[in-house]
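Sequence in, structure out.
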Amino acid sequence: MGINVGRIVRSSTTRYAVGCQVLQREVPVFGSLVKVPAMEGDEVYGLIYDVRMEDDPFVRQIAAATDELGPEYIEDMRRNRQVPIEVAVLVVGYQHAGTIYHRLPPQPPLSLDVICTCTDQELARFTEQFDYFRLVLDNQDLPADELLAANLRYAAQARAKEPAGEKEREDFLVDAGRELARLLAMNLSRLDAILRRIRP
């Protein structure tokens, strides 16, 4: 079962933002695959590409305080206050009637829907095909190369936990590298940079 990240505060067909109260150890993690319910039982998949702590005047006052603050006070402030944290997600596909599509969904998810992380099995299933690569690589206003590389590392780790783990992980990375080589054949420096980032 995945971990709840938070609720959608705004969405579009290509991206959505999620508000959450505090950062958990497991989420949100840059490059993680997450999902959110959509119309008619569908699910929209996305990759976390940014985690932002919005401006909070009260935290600024505490940070500027000259007195020494105890660790228990800081932890209490982090856990029990409504810290304005926003998680940004890039849409990379959706599931309809049990089939996964690596393209933009017909409609964006609704505000206040809960998003959660995908399990290792869901991540492995989503990354069986590489058609979503282009959706990531075409976003030049994002750290697209880092995002895709992080996602591929997580997908490889998920496969390493299977019975035939190490071989499945290696085969996956080789196949992903081949697809990247096909897509970036005219940009070898970019290809080389991504391949270096997905190495274990």
